[in-house]
Design brief:
This protein is mostly helical. The protein has one domain. It is built from three helices and no strands. The longest helix has 26 residues. The radius of gyration is 31 Å and the shape is elongated. The model has no long low-confidence stretch (mean pLDDT 76).
């Protein structure tokens, strides 16, 4: 262990000691902490309800619908691409 590591360890242990000494004086769950936890749970509930609604929505398309929607898109063959395709297709 280097001198720097020893100094870092000592600093962390001093901070930990102070935190442990102050712990008995503080309430573990005061009104502020409980209100914060309630806000967090409310936010999680709101987000999860939106997630469930979005996961239920599906947009299915048949092959014939696909053909109709994209019939106006021109077909490009590999030799017309301005750059090489992966796998050497052109």
């Amino acid at each position: 262990m280097s001198v720097v590591d020893s100094g870092n360890l000592c600093g962390h242990l001093i901070a930990l000691k102070q935190g442990c000494l102050e712990l008995p004086d503080d309430e573990l769950f005061n009104a502020r902490v409980i209100a914060g936890l309630q806000d967090t749970l409310d936010a999680v509930a709101a987000e999860s309800s939106q997630l469930a609604a979005s996961m239920q929505r599906t947009d299915a398309i048949t092959i014939s619908n696909f053909a109709v929607k994209f019939r106006h898109v021109p077909v490009y063959w590999p030799e017309h691409f301005p750059y090489p395709l992966p796998g050497g297709a052109n």
